[in-house]
Amino acid sequence: MPAAPESRRSLTPVSRVLRLCLHALFLGLLALAAGRAVTGPEPHAGWTVAVCALLAAGYLAGALAPAVRNSPRAGALWLAGLGAAWAALLVLSPDGLWLAFPLYFLELHLLRLRWAIPAALVTAAAAIGGFLGHSGGAVTPGPFLGPLLGGAVAVATVLGYEALYRESERRRELIEELITTRAELAAAERDAGILAERERLAREIHDTLAQGLSSIQLLLRAAERTLPQEAPALPHIARARRAAQENLAEARRFVRALTPPDLEHGSLPAALERLCSAVRGPRVRFSLSGTARVLPTPYEVALLRIAQSALANVGRHAAAERAEITLTFMDASVTLDIVDDGTGFDPGAARAGGEGGFGLPAMRSRAESLGGLFTVESAPGQGTAVAVTLPLPVEAP
């Protein structure tokens, strides 16, 4: 059976079986009508067999033609041709009445519902008229109820199947989205673990190895100044100081290599400005409030990653035209605000694991790991505002 024109979907095993059953039913009823015409007392047996053959050929041609499956206009023309040949069969033989049932299904699948229902009613009326014409005018409830009940069963069956198929498609899309989201969350957790380990190594090298080498270099330099120029140990001290200096430079190169690439070539405001200019889709503007200051690497990384995740959500879900990122430095804290004019969502549903909230837990976790506060304000149709506030570390006097 050709697929409905409004949904070009791949066939499931059940729908394939239903198509084969419909083909077999249509062709089997034609064979029955032709056989009864040949073996029975019908006066127009030759014409009946010819029309049945024409109907079978036309049906097979349409069922195999891609144009009928892909074009509503071609499907409607094919149905019109079948209907005309079927009307001729009704005139010749009362057995043509039984073809009304498969025709109902063809009309309901190939035509839009507002046209399929009238077409099914016309088919039922033709079947009733054909039966009355061959019965000699005898009126009984059977000729009226049979086609009407058959049409009602066909409509109920097709509509029920369509409802079940739509529900199945929604469940399939939900499962695919959940699988994709799980993979994204796993990748995000893996990247976060790698980044955290890089940051820890960078801090350890900077706070221990680099500081120790710097202290050794200072001590050796002081020893050089206190020893007389002709002291035998002076060349060894000079070589040790140069070795310490070279290893200190190497340690600092390790620390720079472990720094996130987005922050290698500038400050956090510069990285956020580059991020805004690289976004595709909505226009994103960056603004800085207050006096910028150098933040510890974990703070800069957390704020940058939250901005990246929030802008990714804007591009993926919000359908926004404009967005703005504001970085605000205050005396005891730093705040990052990301605001868009998109479609918005229900934050309560997002916290409960609903649609649209998959990136929020990771952003909240980053902020809270540094003792910060993460908030989301949104409503359907009113845009979204994401804010994160991190307390600045107390500087040593």
UniProtKB/TrEMBL annotation:
Catalysis performed (reactions): ATP + protein L-histidine = ADP + protein N-phospho-L-histidine
Intracellular or extracellular location(s): Cytoplasm
Top-level division of the source organism's lineage: Bacteria
A GO MF label: kinase activity
UniProt-listed PROSITE patterns: HIS_KIN
E.C. code: 2.7.13.3
TM region positions: 47-68, 75-93, 113-132, 144-164
Xref: Pfam families: HATPase_c, HisKA_3
SMART domains found in the cross-reference section: HATPase_c
Gene3D superfamilies, sorted: 1.20.5.1930, Histidine kinase-like ATPase, C-terminal domain
Cofactor(s) named in the record: [4Fe-4S] cluster
Histidine kinase domain: residues covered: 303-394
Keywords: 4Fe-4S, Cytoplasm, Iron, Iron-sulfur, Kinase, Membrane, Metal-binding, Transferase, Transmembrane, Transmembrane helix, Two-component regulatory system
PANTHER family in alphabetical order: NITRATE/NITRITE SENSOR PROTEIN NARX-RELATED, SENSORY TRANSDUCTION HISTIDINE KINASE
Function per UniProt: Member of the two-component regulatory system NreB/NreC involved in the control of dissimilatory nitrate/nitrite reduction in response to oxygen. NreB functions as a direct oxygen sensor histidine kinase which is autophosphorylated, in the absence of oxygen, probably at the conserved histidine residue, and transfers its phosphate group probably to a conserved aspartate residue of NreC. NreB/NreC activates the expression of the nitrate (narGHJI) and nitrite (nir) reductase operons, as well as the putative nitrate transporter gene narT.
Protein's UniProt name: Oxygen sensor histidine kinase NreB
Biological classification of the source: Bacteria, Bacillati, Actinomycetota, Actinomycetes, Kitasatosporales
